[in-house]
């Protein structure tokens, strides 16, 4: 126990020996009972003050419990009223913060930030030492990045810390604004702090009106005029500024800088400008044609990343333009370049880039697409026939598919004749035409326009399921056949007459094998989802005659648990549609899910006991996470219990399976 009547220096040295105690009780006694009475005497001597400050900073890496931290904080707040202590504490704090800029724990970081806020709140430090405040603010900005990159709780705590500080003292807030304005707080190193102070600013209409020019200027200087490519976090930091930006500021401040830098350093600003356009809530019709010349130049650049960033911008301009005259203007600009207005596009990637840009125009509103679709599809057919490079032809088919997915007006008679000829192409181009047909058949308005393709598609289905090497072609063709048969009784009769179901059942009883599924691309998996949905919704009774429904449901379940989120999302929606149409299938699917859980559990146990790789397992090509399994169970359960009360027991068994109920996973069903 430290003697309170001893000399301050001796008492402080004795306290320093106790500060590292693991006992919370002794810590509380030290900072609540022992040190406060020494405060007045200790601050009379610079050396004693230094000892006291050092003692406080020794707690930084040690005190991790709430009670001990609060006792230290209370001591700091009380001591800050002494000017001698304040000066020594401020100097040590700034040095400690600068020392910990690169390596620090979130807890230590939070303590330093909180002490710095106490310093600004309870003293006149900010006005007494402008240079000291500048160093402190810069260190705060860098350390706040650590917390803002952390968990939700850490981010929330950091925000609350500064919002409280700004709210309690407008003068302090304005001093931070000056630091930001004069670039003493670097956006590159501290984007989270820029976002934090901007977030606070936009909550007050008066502050936002006063300081909006400061942030606009900061964006132009640090993002658009940057000599190095800005990080995604730096661009994201300005999101609150652009969510509600008006046309006047965008046109007069942002647009000129965007165009200027796209001409000067496009590789640096392309991605940031793409993020900017995605963020603003403006109709971009008036600006689209100012962007297009410089963006289209990048869309045919040799660098793939540049092309992709430019295409994203074209897509955003399309998505956010409502003026009906904008789409024809953008189309004509692309058409002119493909026609050689800026020189011959001799390299395939240049033509592909322009065709991809034309594909992005399909993001315009459907009404506008419908008016221009016939002209675009006719132009794309001309491009296809006039180019001898396979990759360019595939890009043309992809663009045509995107337009056809939005408007049935893109599917003109010449397009149908073109597809008929395309189904006779070699492997890769034939597959491209089949992908185009799939897109057309997904649009119910277009189905009646391609009924003449039925006979060709039936033959491709037969060939595809007769030859293992063409199985994928067969799946694409069968999907189109299934969709056409759903709207045309004659088509269904042709399928029966050609004995298509019988032939497929003999060649591949499960229709789509799990082994094949594991080798397919995401796009091909999505086609499998479409096929299964069409068969189980539109042709369930017919399919039951030839195939095992359980085999089809098993494939559908695998797709619901697929590693790719894009596949899972579409498969999830398709399964809801299937089960809504026939609740009896839910009971079968729940039974399959129960068996599959056992297989997953056995496989996980085997992998834990050995160094085997799960990729070679024909029954289980991938092991889904607990979260995915839980979502799959939640998908099936409502339909299963609605159809049969017997499903309750199986549902309870599934929910208690280790793969789902494991307490080691935060995504499990049961929360402790």
Automatic annotation (TrEMBL):
Single Gene Ontology BP annotation: regulation of translation
Domain Stalled ribosome sensor GCN1-like N-terminal: 212-345
GO MF annotations in UniProt: protein kinase regulator activity
A GO term from the CC aspect: cytosol
Superkingdom of origin: Eukaryota
Source organism: Triticum turgidum subsp. durum (Durum wheat)
Family: Belongs to the GCN1 family.
Record-linked Pfam families: GNC1_N
Protein name listed in UniProt: Stalled ribosome sensor GCN1-like N-terminal domain-containing protein
UniProt-listed InterPro entries: ARM-like (IPR011989), ARM-type_fold (IPR016024), GNC1-like_N (IPR056810)
Keywords from the UniProt entry: Repeat
Gene3D superfamilies found in the cross-reference section: Leucine-rich Repeat Variant
